[in-house]
Amino acid sequence: MTDQFAFDYPSPLAGYEGLEPLPVELNEDGKSIKNPQHGILSKAYEEFPDPLAKDRRGGFDVHIYHFQNNPDQVAYARALYERIRREFPELRIYRFFEGPLGPHPIAMFEVNLFTPAQFGAFIPWLIINRGPLSALLHPNTDEEEEEERNHTQRATWLGDKIPLDLRIFKLMKQAEKKNKQNGKTTFYISSRDVAAATVPSYVLEYAPMVWLHGEEAYMPSDIGEQLVHTTPMVDWKPIENAPSATTLENLDQLNNLGNTSVYLTSKEGIDADPQPSWLRGIKPDQDGRTQDAVSSTIILRDHGDGTLDAFYFYFYAEHNMIRFSEGVPQAIWYSQHASGQAFTYGATEKNGKRPIAYSGNGTHANYAISGKHDHTIPGFNLPDGLIVDQTDSGTLWDPTLSAYVYKYDASEETFQAYDSGYPVNWLNFNGQWGDDALPGGPELFGQKKYVAGPNGPKFKKLVRDKVCPISPCVVLPFRIWENQTLEEQGQRTESS
Q: Which SUPFAM superfamilies match (predicted)?
């Protein structure tokens, strides 16, 4: 039973004082008691009561657990997950987690409920259909400091109770207190963003934000979702003895079945017409978050002398890297196809403290400025040319809101997740994330229209002396050929 002194409990009769005594007569059944009818339904039929959240978080989270090492439970959980997605598509349903995450000590998936009607429909359905699985039903409130209470005293369990790891909530409070003491921006940290409580705060404070092109057709995608729609192949032939279902946790097993020759080949084919809908990804919402999709990866490499390199990988290929010295950003690398550019932190366009990266339309190459970018010759970025990327301020994406975060140990060449629920083995995959180049495929201006899919983060020179992965390394102290943002251009045009 909850410690009665752990929390404050306002009187349930607040607002109902001084009324006539209730009757004591029984109904005809001889058991239930008569209540005076006043013809007014409680507001709780229409909306959740205060202080339950009524915003995008939803009033209730439902976590449905399974033991990830029990194949029968895994199979049932996946079947239940599919059924819920098909029968209740209006609910917000997160990805299927294959291991512990945040305060949740075993694997689970999460469903959000936004209205009393959704609650009333889904919870009775789940009681009947949850099978051998346990479920945690907890509220979300407007009181952020009440997260621990929401997961304990206010929580309800269906089935056996799973002991939660409440340490995360202590870390959240410590991180918020530390940020306030240091005069730094306080980040909202949810239980799904446990890494934010332990990652150096400056890594998030100065993390890049990305402008996706206004006509971008290929939005950020969930890293694991790609595996659902691809088949591991070597020389355009499916690999024998490959895992029946490729996941982020077993992807590295393909190293023994083809190693660098393995391509994660789309089931529909690279030149499918029409293109499959999964290629379109998920457009960031008004907060810049890719809901239901972990679409970026942050990898930290500590040099041990006060220098730390933070790599911000988008989807699985292009990236920015910021070099920090004693927590202060010094320079930033923008990857662009087979090359890229480096700038001092002071030279970059910013949103507050956060550098801006412009993503090429359809290519996702990263640039420091908007406009046209010729990349016919690697390493050169001219405003016009033969093969041009287009960038503008279309949709603003904050990759840190949906990211896995890892440390990289250069001496051991190993990755360590900041949260035990983050998959690690996929980072050791030696193959290619995409189709092999089509033999004799179509060309544009003498260049192949389709090139082979890229390899993963560990091949992006995580260990480097300079901020650039190549030599010579020129760190520009200004933005080249156009030292103005679109907003600045507009202001100049209006004033002229």
A: DOPA-like
Give 22-41 pLDDT, tens digit per residue. 989 999 999 999 998 888 99
Q: Of 162-171, 282-291, 304-313, 410-419, where does mean pLDDT reach its minimum? A: 162-171
| Assigned token pair, 71 | 């194949």
Yes or no: say if 402 and 362 are a contact pair by the CB < 8 Å rule: no
Q: Which amino acid is at 53?
A: A
What does DSSP assign to residue 492?
H
pLDDT in tens, 123-162: 999 999 999 999 999 999 876 558 888 999 999 999 999 9
Shared domain for 321 and 375, answered yes or no, is yes
β-bridge pairing 237-238 and 263-266: unpaired
Cβ-contact 331, 318 below 8 angstroms? no
Position 193 in a domain:
no
Domain match, 298 and 382 both: yes
Asked if residue 173 has pLDDT above 80, the reply is no
pTM of the model as a whole: 0.63
> Is 121 within a domain?
yes
Q: Which residues pair with 389 in a beta bridge?
A: 373
Task: Please give the pLDDT value at position 441.
Answer: 58
Higher pLDDT, 493 or 146: 146
Cβ neighbours for 108, distance < 8 A, ≥ 6 positions apart: 63, 64, 65, 66, 97, 101
What's the distance, CA 440 to chain centroid? 37
What are the backbone dihedrals phi and psi of residue 124, each rounded to the nearest 5 degrees, phi first? -60, -40
Domain contains 220: yes
Whether residue 60 sits in one domain with residue 208: no
Q: Which domain holds residue 282?
A: 203-476
CB 406 within 8 A of CB 199: no
In 3D space, the residue among 141, 207, 205, 151 whose CA is nearest the CA of residue 178 turns out to be 205
* Shared-domain flag, residues 230 and 282: yes
Specify the number of domains making up the chain: 2
- Show Cβ contacts of residue 273 under 8 Å, excluding neighbours closer than 6 positions: none
Q: Do 272 and 160 have their domain in common?
A: no
Q: Calculate the CA 195 to chain-centre distance.
A: 12
Parallel, antiparallel or unpaired: strands 443-444 and 414-417: unpaired
